[in-house]
Amino acid sequence: MSRTFLGLPRTLRRPDDAGAVDEPFGAVPHPQEPLRWGDAFPAAAKQTLKNDQLRRNLGHATQVIRTKRAAVVGEVPDWEALRDAGSAVKQQVMAQLPDLLQQLEEQVTARGGVVHWARDAAEANRIVADIAKAKGADEVVKVKSMATQEIGLNEALADEGIAAIETDLAELIVQLADDMPSHILVPAIHRNRSEIRDIFLARMGDAPPDLSDVPRELAMAARAHLRRKFLSAKVAVSGANFAVADTGTLAVVESEGNGRMCLTLPETLVTVMGIEKLVPTFDDLEVFLQLLPRSSTGERMNPYTSLWTGVTPGDGPQEFHLVLLDNGRTDVLADEVGRAALHCIRCSACLNVCPVYERVGGHAYGSVYPGPIGAILTPQLTASTGGVSGHHDPNASLPYASTLCGACYEVCPVKIDIPSILVDLRAREVDADRSKHGVDPWKTAMKAASWVMADGDRFALAGRAATLGSGLGGRDHAISVAPPPASAWTRSRDLPAPPRQTFRQWWAAEHETSPVETVETDGPTSEEDDR
Amino acid sequence: MRIALAATCLADTLFPGAPRATVRLLERLGHEVVFPTDQACCGQMHVNTGYYREAVPVIRNHVETFAPVADGEWDAVVMPSGSCTGSVRHQQAMVCRRAGLDDLAATAEAVSAKTYELSELLVDVLGLTDVGAWFPHRVTYHPTCHSLRMLHVGDKPLRLLRAVEAIDLVELPAADSCCGFGGTFALKNADTSAAMLEDKTANVRGTGAEVLTAGDMSCLMHIGGGLSRQGTGIHALHLAEVLASTRTDPTPMPATTFSRPERSERTEATR
Hints:
The structure holds 2 protein chains of 2 kinds. Chain A is 44% helix and 10% strand.
């Protein structure tokens, strides 16, 4: 799916402090692992939160697209029924995935395509590189694709001496800046127009020297640059939004027409597709082609929908390869709760409504899949056996990168219950850590709290103890300094001092005549769950 | 009606003004309120942090304490918290089933079917929007995430507030945006949480309201904690505290951010 035009945010930077045009643009060096880079989420977010310009850009862009989406979704009377249908089709696909994939392979092969199966990123990259080399190509043009981002295809091709040219405008900006994408749909959402002009002037050889930061001029410069690439490329690489099992048809939806160029002009087309992107029948596209554009770009219909089935003699690419990518997906499919993450159609509506994403931006997630969907997809794709990351893995922090506010679930066009999956992933990590020795303050606190909160009398005693602190906080009864871990709270918020009387003390005084019962005084026992 | 109050662990211990106002309101409306003293917590904190196993005894205690509602001993359970009601409705049975406790899960579902968040109880069960309240202050309302998106209470709290006599109810910009609390999120991701809180408090301040109200003391603890730190003088009162207020028995404006109700006059007698 290509980008929507959100209006490039105006820069707040003054012309005289723009800096040299050859300054390094990419805040993120190209990672070895596109699904795992940088610090754990809290530390990475702490850094990106310092970037005021980023927050303003994101605040503006997500607000614009949220409003657009809400408007076009609101005008569909059967939107909820469409979501139910989308969810049901995806559940069916997951239940029948092996059969549907075989059906797809048969259909694509029968229509003159070649199907390749890739267990992981390395296998997929090898397949694409070998095809490009066999064609003698040292340059390939690319349609924006999350699957090829996920496997680091561009870097792998570069290692083989093949240049992969991104042709989506925003992907081109990211690529020229040697940066990483920060959004699934609008990968350069963290850039403003002045930065884009600087990037083009420094890195796009044929950019006009008098280029301004007017969006139209920027787009025209990129258009001229890309046109030359489209006309000379022998090989194109794409992803796929959908593959229809019963016809072998592939689909790409986009906004700029660059995809249509890539899918039709070069002699050879290689499509890399996650195995979950199937729909059973051609009719099922009807549901998703309504859900996707409204959810992603906030459009009733995307400008370009390209469908192709194998090879058509004399029309379009005469050689078509389909690379079916697993890369952790069958492990995700094995999990009863987590597998719903595979229903995702990469619309990015969840990013645009996420209050966490809006503040921290995509790079804080350390994965090409940021935001709420990234927080459930990334750790599952990179998990070791049993779907567990392990607390040494920065991706283990991702399921906690959410307040569970539920905005993502509300907008998801295929009704992925992201908050519930986040909680389930948290539970997996907690359970995996139970076998580990050593003191974990969270575990200790949770066990102690469980003991207190599982009994009304023990809880009453704890409450009564708390009231001993009712004089804290001085005249305001507001505690503004506290030791760790409460200091994380009091850095920006006060804590109220405990009340003079808990509710249940008040209730007992008002409503009961019998004296307060005695309370058992044993501490929490270290039960069987220590193992 | 005979209504059992689940006060919630947080309000019981830190914010007794909210459950006390709930009692005051429901008794004023002619209902009998009971407080089963075996209650402690619904288990939400443990579940949302991933500690399902530790959540089980907490959930068991909650479910067993409120099981009589399923047998008709009480007509309903009221929980003055959107997120706790959400946990009762959407998490307790799931956690029990995961632990292989199918019977407990079934009881949990029977209890949750008769458990209501305050605005649900008033509007859906009791059929009221005008509860006869009087509250002559400028108020803005924050719809908490779980009441909005887990319980789908919609505009029920606002309908109740609009019917309050003498209230000056002002709209909160970006009201449905999360305040950044998220339970342990506020500690584990303190910087992100603070950035979200900053925007929420700026919006609250911009309304010129004297009182911020919501249906959940946990969110109010967070936003109110920020308003207190910023020295705004804005008070954070639970929806029940606004709705309980009448001309003859007004909810007093607290000297601090949150209510600090006096001890019961009968306290010494029972101690």
